[in-house]
Amino acid sequence: MTARCAAVNRQHQASPPRRGSPKRRLTHMNNPLPDVALTEVSSALVSLDWVGMQGVEVPVRLAEAGVRYPVHAHVDLQVDLADPSVKGIHMSRLYRLLDRYAEHQILSPDTLGALMEAMVESHLDCHSSRARLTLSFNLLCRRPALITEGLSGWKSYPVKLDATWHAGRLCLDVSADIIYSSTCPCSAALSRQLLEGAFTARFGRQSFVDPMLVATWLRENASFATPHS
């Protein structure tokens, strides 16, 4: 049974292909695709204030005491598109500039200004004259304990940089969120002391105080945030 099957298989492999059934060639798969950016013309030609990329993740090096490693940053970067006849920017050029910056430069106003100037120069063929960049990251810092000697912990501070470049000038705005909360007994005692002083300043000269007036004052002023040190 095995020898017979083998003979049939050899006969089938040796038989020539049948006439009348030629192979189809998919020539349409090799046709070039149209470049719509070059061939199509929009009915509404307008300039754009900003065109670019958002949420690009890169490591950024800081000249900050105690920060030995790059921080994980998110970057938005754009240039303007003033010429209505230009249909788009070259995002790969912006990405390459940002990638080289993250690899070789330390974050500072000077290096950031040089990066944004290069962003504009990379799009002179698009008639761009302005650049904008937003950079955000969490700065992780070690902070000592308030009382216990030799004990410290880590605290994260969200940092955001908003920068624009125009006519050879860098405008930079930096913000940081410093979040504080405390419920320790020392903080509660300070809060009560501050509340006592505020109440005395408000009602101390009165021999009689209307309870409803006191209730209203307490509802509006009975909580004072007092960070301890």
From TrEMBL:
<feature type="region of interest" description="Disordered">
    <location>
        <begin position="1"/>
        <end position="29"/>
    </location>
</feature>
<protein>
    <submittedName>
        <fullName>GTP cyclohydrolase FolE2</fullName>
    </submittedName>
</protein>
<keyword id="KW-0378">Hydrolase</keyword>
<dbReference type="GO" id="GO:0003934">
    <property type="term" value="F:GTP cyclohydrolase I activity"/>
</dbReference>
<dbReference type="Pfam" id="PF02649">
    <property type="entry name" value="GCHY-1"/>
</dbReference>
<dbReference type="InterPro" id="IPR003801">
    <property type="entry name" value="GTP_cyclohydrolase_FolE2/MptA"/>
</dbReference>
